[in-house]
Amino acid sequence: MAKKRKKKKNTKHKLLSSNFEFHGAWINPDWQSSGNALILFARKLPSGLLAFVHFAIVGKRCDDCFIVDRITEERFRTDFLSDRKLLKVEEDVIKNTLRGVVRANKEEQSEVPKEFYDALKLVGTIDWQVEEQPQDFTGHILRYTMVKDRDDVEVEIRQTSVFEESEQSTDGAREFLWIESRKKGVFAKKELKTVGRVRFTDEELIIEVTEGEDEEFLDRKILQYLGACIESQDE
């Protein structure tokens, strides 16, 4: 009697976890202005090898997605990074970029590639409903003088994960939502909240503060994020 062949266990799902060490995330530098994003997101496995996912985003749609679950750092660098002019970014930049895709799939029933949600396991939880939160602004204004060229300041904003370009933003009038993780109580889970809206004039960076936000806190924070690009104006 022939021996029964043992079925090989599928371990791929075990290698797609946001609990592994973050190795790096990359995106094309013009993803905000073009509306198209090429994303690589990698974590290091306990074995020392990498698991990474690739997303090609067009607008709010994922056009392509694939997963590589075991690869050496050297091969990842030479085969997938070396010939691409990609910008290295923080995890939250990728989550913010993927949020619209998840939302469109959940609410509009738009299609995503077969491996899309498996790939998201490596990235982590996407808080796609955050966009539904109302954005009530108090009318309080924080003003800063730009000590660098406006284009340079915009580049710094795009590389800082807490800023997300608004749907009202245009080529002539750039506008960004400032989104922070905040707690409602001591033991409450952190939630993403829009704390301000950032826009430009010719020489100024202006923040319109949301309802109930601490202006002194925001003033300290914005200088931490963009201190090399802006300076507070004397009242």
Computed CA radius of gyration, to the nearest angstrom? 21 Å
Strand-residue proportion: 25-35%
Number of domains: 2
Count the beta strands.
11
Helix content: 25-40%
Principal-axes shape call: globular
Distance between the termini: 91 Å
Largest sheet: 6 strands, antiparallel
Alpha plus pi helix count: 6
Mean pLDDT: 84
Structural class call reads alpha+beta
State the low-pLDDT regions, or none. 1-11
Order of helices and strands: EHEEEHEHHEHEEEEHE
Physical arrangement of strands within the biggest beta sheet: 7-8-9-10-6-11
Short précis:
26% of the residues lie in helices and 34% in strands.
Which properties best describe this structure?
235 residues, alpha+beta, six-stranded antiparallel β-sheet, five-stranded antiparallel β-sheet, 11 strands, globular, disordered N terminus
